[in-house]
Amino acid sequence: MPGESSTPGESREIAVDYLARVEGEGAMYLKLDGDRVEEVQFNIFEPPRFYEALLRGRRFD
Amino acid sequence: MTAAPDSRPTLAVWKFASCDGCQLTLLDCEDELLTIAGAINIAYFPEATRAESPGPYDLSIVEGSVTTPHDAERILEVRAMSRTLITIGACATAGGVQSLKNWANVDDFISIVYAEPSFIDTLATSTPIADHVEVDFELRGCPISKQQLIEVIDAFLSGRKPNTPTHSVCVECKLRGTPCIMVSHGTPCMGPITQSGCGALCPAYNRGCYGCFWPSDSPNIESLRDTWHGLGIDDEQLVRALRTFNAYAPEFKEASDRYAG
Fold it and tell me: N or C: which terminus of chain B carries fewer CB neighbours within 10 A?
């Protein structure tokens, strides 16, 4: 988890399977080599709601 | 001394396609939250805590609508591990604003909104939870009322029917002492055909009701249409008002389809 000490060359993986404190839900996967980030995956699993498409043709008020 | 086994009923809170606002109403209880947490064991509520206990659960509160093949499967699993299942909010009880896609071609929407349409896996429709599984109670609102949520949880704990009136917002305007904005200002208002529960919030601030709380019991939409026509509001605008938060609620859907011609 974040905050742990890192050793150069040591490979670490951080997987947060539920990022709740964002609008919509997602998950994040980090792979680190020491302090160097090797890989980042951000997975948005919040289902699409298509607000941008629904708003077309509607008045602002 | 050994601690007595936890005899409190377990609560799980689930999210489908939604904005999180309704389940956050539970955390918004603030003054009442400790009392609620004392009476029920919050066993699964990712929005509040990462600590979770395995099911089955005595009470599941479900927010959001079913819009993906994965969620259509997941709601069956949620139902199977829930003794009582209550849906909260316009998404879970009526399909939500996103049910507007039910009138459109979802493939067009995907390409309008997303740069990489191939990443998007979605059903053609957004449907309420009760279209997929048996639901024990539906709490209306976009978002739901905190007081009504507490009432529903309290009713569950004491094994009684929740007291959530199905009369119109007009009743709440009268209780609040708000003069009718449609009669006195000529402001178009959905209040006469919308269920109460919000405390008639918008009319108290001189805004017409937007219909967040589902159709009221036996709504006279035809009469409202006549009144709106008298105020210079045409059917196109009326259809848009009906197709908003509870667009797929049966009475609003049927009327909007009829007036859309």
Answer: N
User: Distance, in angstroms, between A58 CA and closest chain B CA?
Assistant: 8
Domain limits of chain A? 11-54
A 10 A CB-CB count for B247 gives 26
> For A5-18, what is the HEC assignment?
CCCCCCEEEEEEEE
Q: How many CB atoms lie within 10 A of CB B156?
A: 22
Q: What value does the mean pLDDT take over residues B209-230?
A: 98
| Nearest CB partner across the interface for B68, out of A18, A20, A47 | A47
Spell out where chain B has E strands.
10-15, 41-44, 57-63, 82-88, 137-139
Q: What is the pLDDT of residue A22?
A: 74
Predicted TM-score of the model (pTM): 0.91
Question: Would you state the structure tokens that stand for residue B187, as one six-digit string?
Answer: 């402001």
Question: Which domains, ranges and CATH numbers included, belong to chain B?
Answer: 10-158 (3.40.50.700), 169-260 (no CATH)
Q: A19: pLDDT confidence band, cut at 50, 70 and 90? A: confident
Segment B185-216, tens digit of pLDDT: 999 999 999 999 999 999 999 999 999 999 99
The one-character DSSP state at B194 is: B
CA dist A14 and B224 (Å) reads 56
Cα–Cα nearest to A48, from B220, B11, B118, B46: B118
Test B108 with A50 for CB contact under 8 angstroms: no
Q: What is the average pLDDT value for chain A, to the nearest integer?
A: 83
